[in-house]
Design goal:
Blueprint (H helix, E strand, L loop, with lengths): L10 H10 L4 H6 L6 H10 L2 H6 L7 H12 L3 E5 L2 E9 L3 H11 L9 E3 L13 E5 L7 H4 L3 H6 L3 H11 E4 L9 E5 L5 H15 L4 E3 L10 E3 L2 H13 L3 H7 L18 H11 L1
Antiparallel strand pairs: 1-2, 2-4, 3-4, 5-6, 6-8, 7-8
Helix pairs in contact: 5-9, 6-12, 11-12
Organism: Paenibacillus ferrarius
Protein name: Homing endonuclease LAGLIDADG domain-containing protein
GO molecular function: endonuclease activity
Length: about 280
């Protein structure tokens, strides 16, 4: 068992540094000459502050809530323990800037001050694994409501910010082929049930006035549902996520997924969006 250091740190001081300011044991130790992180941890355990930190009464900002909802529908995951929840996010090495911009929005409740790198190049399981950048939040009570939400609940709370995160996480920009010189979106929802997919399509239509299709075949060995958007709807969706409050993330870190224009051809000549664009250019 670790022995207590000679000089005692009072409980109210540690409460302020550890709970209110959110400093780690190592960061607190740096403020006190002669103390190591294990000395600080000794007192945190003595005062019962370690478990209390899991119950810190943090109030999430609206932007943080949008990030959490979008990540929960996309690539993020939750971990629940000690009556509190942590959000875990990871992205491929080539998406570091995207992961970094997410991290900046929520790092005030993270256990570390920068992204962590996970080298997966030496993993030998028959798959080519991409190395990743990751971050995770502290375990906080304020996150519990999102952990307890079903996918239906998450989609009920969807807005343009969280839709942007969901699309950037799980969306694919289908590049043009053949005579059609336009791009379109597909949104992977392989983890969803068919009922959840149908609800997602309804929500996207109700909230963003976008029509969608569905790529699915019951004869597939491992059916993977994919929500599809035609060229016009994809262009509109790109405008929605570009112009939302968090749109700078898409523009600065994932611009290759944005659709900035529609090329007029036989396939697109009847699209209302194209007609509106043409009328604005003429006027």
């Amino acid at each position: 068992m670790l022995k207590s250091p000679r000089m005692k740190i009072e409980e109210d001081v540690l409460k302020h540094l550890y709970l209110e300011l959110g400093l780690t044991a190592k960061e607190i130790a740096e403020k006190y000459n002669g103390y190591a992180a294990h000395n600080i941890k000794y007192y945190l355990r003595q005062y019962g502050l370690v478990n209390n930190k899991y119950k810190i009464n943090h109030v999430l900002s609206e932007i943080q809530k949008d990030l959490i909802i979008g990540s929960a529908l996309g690539d993020g995951g939750f971990d629940y323990r000690n009556d509190s929840t942590s959000l875990n996010v990871s992205h491929a090495e080539n998406q570091k800037s995207y992961c970094q911009m997410k991290f900046e929005l929520i790092k005030d409740i993270c256990n570390h001050r920068e992204l962590r790198f996970k080298d997966r190049s030496n993993e030998k399981d028959g798959h080519k694994r991409q190395s990743q950048f990751t971050f995770n939040t502290k375990y906080i009570v304020a996150m519990n409501e999102f952990y307890k939400m079903s996918r239906y609940d998450l989609m009920d709370n969807l807005n343009s910010n969280s839709m942007m995160i969901w699309l950037l996480d799980d969306g694919h920009k289908y590049e043009p082929r053949g005579k059609n010189k336009n791009s379109s979106y597909e949104l992977s929802v392989g983890r969803f049930t068919l009922a959840e997919v149908a609800y997602a399509q309804k929500i996207i239509n109700d909230k963003f006035n976008l029509n969608t299709g569905l790529k699915y075949n019951e004869k597939w060995k491992n059916p993977q549902y994919t929500i599809t958007f035609d060229v016009e709807q994809s262009y509109l969706l790109s405008q929605i996520i570009s112009n939302c409050e968090m749109g700078y993330i898409a523009k600065e870190s994932m611009s290759y997924k944005l659709i900035d224009t529609i090329h007029i051809n036989r396939i697109t000549q009847n699209y209302k969006v194209v007609q509106e664009m043409m009328s604005r250019s003429i006027s």
